[in-house]
Amino acid sequence: MLTVIMECRDQEPELAHTLSTLVSGAVEGLVSDVVILDHGSRDGSSRVADAAGCRFHGEWDIKDVVESARGEWLLLMEPGARPQSGWIEDIQEYVALNRVPARFSPSRNYKRPLLRRIVKKQPPLEYGLLLPKHQAASLAKSGMALSHFARGQKMRRLSAEIIPSWVVTAAREQR
Q1: Which own/partner contact pairs does 19-27 have at CB distance under 8 Å and 24+ positions apart?
Q2: DSSP H or E segment with residue 93
Q3: What is the pTM (predicted TM-score) of this model?
Q4: What is the bridge-based pairing of β-strands 129-132 and 73-77?
Q5: What element of type H or E holds 127?
Q6: What burial letters (b/e) apply to 92-112, b meaning 16+ CB within 10 Å?
Q7: pLDDT for 97-132, tens place per residue?
């Protein structure tokens, strides 16, 4: 079982996009719970999370959040990111055979322009982070952001691809 954790701030459309993708994981019995850690959103993020059956926290301690996770593995993601077909089977196989962190493969269809890839540093959770709960619990410190879990991790790459959150954000900004 897997607990998905995301941090958000005024990202209602991105959150809805990701949560709709995670439904299939819940139906298949992979995703046991989803936790949304909010940074003072003033949009409908809390309503989207509530409608999807997520736990929504306006105030939290990351140590408590990790301890309360139902799954034995955690998937840390950015709102707006969407795992692509085959992600459920890929994660099920990975967690059955491995004990080290992993991340999704980048989508072949959605790449940042070359100059942005060279100049701009990749966000730590752009391709998600899958890690065992016990490892996350040992790393968790009060006041820590989700992105800090990715620091210094030697990760394997899942074969399943993910469309990064910036794709949804860019599409929304073009409107």
Answers
A1: 19/48, 19/49, 19/52, 19/54, 21/82, 21/83, 23/52, 24/88, 25/87, 25/88, 25/91
A2: helix 87-97
A3: 0.93
A4: antiparallel
A5: none
A6: eebbeeeeebbbbebbeeeeb
A7: 999 999 999 998 988 777 776 777 788 999 999 999
